[in-house]
Design a protein that fits this description.
Elements lengths: L25 H12 L2 E6 L2 E6 L2 H7 L5 E4 L2 H4 L2 H4 L11 H10 L5 H23 L7 E2 H18 L13 H19 L3 H6 L1 H27 L8 H10 L8 H14 L2 H16 L1 H15 L7 H4 L2 H13 L5 E6 L3 E3 L3 E3 L4 E5 H4 L19 H6 L18 H18 E5 L7 E3 L3 E3 L3 E6 L1
Parallel strand pairs: 2-8
Antiparallel strand pairs: 1-2, 3-5, 4-12, 5-8, 6-7, 9-12, 10-11
Helix pairs in contact: 6-7, 6-19, 7-12, 7-13, 8-10, 13-16, 13-19, 14-16, 14-19
This protein binds protoporphyrin IX containing FE (HEM).
Length: 456
């Protein structure tokens, strides 16, 4: 028998379930609604219906690529103004997805990581110089510095372009434009589903056009500089795309799509990793035993030296700290899945072809399969034996299937390298009065989180 999908009791005509919504934290609102309504529920926001699913059994089915595929939820669709048919925002049927995926997948293999290792170390070194140049009693704004670091890393490894992040007091204008465009797209998604909202958004839309034009100009300049350079280009993402165009590769993509890919990688390649690093540092600072163990591992494995490539993956415990941080706060917290044919989810919830749901990852990561204290931070949940004891498809910080994160290895190598570097060189200490507050932009990020870092 078909079951009804529960929804919050307080429902207003027109506005839908906006009562009780803190517009700044829609994702965390959904997680708390889920705590009451269970592993599947729906919300109605300004006439838009959202179904959230997070039960382990449901997500296992939604991960079945023969029945379901990626769906661009409204928040992601809104990013097409920036990312176009780039990898992240492409519809499954768009030919540029397959071409760019084939073209760029080799740049994200485990072997490719080797070639980024030196640059990642250099950027981590700049973070260290930056921290060493301050008065060691003044706390550092962790999310701000992690964002500088991750943007710098993707800029240099992907496009051999530096934003000079650590030399600037102010954000690079490209970053300002990018952040502005991201929050504009998120803020106006629902507003623009009504006629009045579209009028209200007009001024902001005009400002957004200016930002997007500026971003396009910067990216085109990077591409032009590379094209006209007489030196052979470095082997980076941009070179893979330009070479395919030069050599008439069947997977070649045109100039506009190259621009979309560059912007996509700059955005997708830094916010999420920055958040992951920030949450990991938060949990390290709050769990002295974990911190001591992680630090001991780094000292033992790296022997006080700069790590060779192989020594990153050897930090097994630091990796578990990262995995566990991404369990509690998966920084890209939801993804959409649509039914390929009429079907019934877990034998109870009928779906028509094209019907879609959002997988609410933080709730999935607190499903009963994770034990009876899912809020507890415990890296040992990721010991191999414990992973094996859980069903598949209960841990999805990087999404699922064909459209899962292409940058997963990249993010993990970078994050473990940076955590190791920080642990190797500093003691870290959080303000004991700080209570974790999570800001929602496109991604999740600790807000107002500072650490006092002192040279060991
Ligand atoms: C896709 C998470 C780092 C590039 C995704 C998806 C998730 C995700 C959940 C799937 C979204 C969906 O199904 O709609 C994360 C997290 C990261 C991270 C949590 C860090 C901790 C990176 C990095 C890069 C990157 C470092 C690039 C260097 C991409 C791209 C896609 C993607 C291009 C789209 C793939 C496709 O559809 O073909 N990511 N990501 N991500 N990610 Fe990541």
């Amino acid at each position: 028998t078909d079951a009804r999908i529960p929804h919050p009791a307080w429902r207003l005509p027109v506005l839908g379930d906006v009562l009780g919504i803190n517009i700044r934290t829609p994702l965390q609102n959904s997680v708390s609604i889920g705590r009451e309504l269970g592993p599947i529920f729906e919300r109605n926001v300004l006439g838009n219906r959202f179904v959230f699913a997070s039960g382990a059994d449901m997500v296992a089915e939604l991960s079945d690529e023969s029945r379901f595929a990626k769906h661009l939820a409204p928040g992601v669709k809104a990013l097409r103004g920036i990312g176009g048919d780039g990898l992240f925002t492409a519809y499954n049927h768009e030919p540029n997805w397959g071409k760019a995926h084939n073209l760029l997948a080799p740049a994200f293999s485990q072997t490719a990581m080797r070639s980024y290792h030196r640059t990642m170390l250099d950027v981590a070194g700049e973070l260290v110089d930056h921290w060493d140049s301050r008065d060691s009693d003044s706390p550092v704004d962790i999310s701000a510095d992690m964002t500088k670091l991750t943007l710098e890393t993707i800029g240099r490894t992907g496009f051999s372009y530096s934003f000079d992040s650590f030399e600037r007091e102010e954000q690079h204008p490209f970053v300002k434009a990018m952040v502005g465009a991201l929050s504009h797209s998120q803020r106006t998604t629902f507003l623009k589903s009504t006629a009045l909202g579209r009028v209200l958004a007009r001024r902001a839309d005009q400002r957004d056009e200016v930002r997007k034009a500026y971003m396009a100009e910067v990216v085109d300049e990077v591409i032009r500089a590379r094209r006209t350079s007489t030196e052979p280009g470095p082997e980076d993402l941009l070179e893979l795309m330009l070479r395919a165009a030069r050599e008439n590769d069947p997977n070649r993509i045109d100039e506009l799509n190259i621009r979309h890919q560059v912007v996509t990688f700059l955005v997708a390649g830094h916010e999420t990793t920055s958040g992951a690093l920030s949450f990991a540092l938060y949990y390290l600072s709050r769990n002295p035993d974990v911190l001591a163990k992680a630090q001991a591992e780094v000292d033992k494995v790296w022997e006080g030296e700069e790590p060779a490539f192989e020594k990153i993956a050897k930090l097994r415990y630091v990796r578990r700290v990262l995995d566990e941080s991404l369990r509690l706060w998966p920084t890209a917290p939801a993804y959409g899945r649509a039914a390929l044919e009429d079907t019934t989810l877990v034998g109870k919830y009928p779906m028509k072809k094209g019907d879609w749901m959002l997988v609410l990852i933080p709730s999935l990561h607190r499903d009963p399969v994770w034990g009876n204290d899912p809020e507890a931070f415990d890296p040992d949940r990721f010991l191999p034996a414990n992973i094996k004891a859980r069903p598949a498809h209960v841990y999805k910080p990087f999404g699922t299937g064909e459209r899962a994160c292409i940058g997963r290895q990249f993010a993990i190598h970078e994050a473990v390298l940076v955590l190791g570097t920080i642990l190797q060189k500093y003691t870290i200490e959080a303000d004991p009065d700080y209570e974790l507050k999570v800001a929602e932009r496109l991604t999740l990020m600790p807000e107002g989180f500072n650490l006092t870092v002192r040279r060991r």
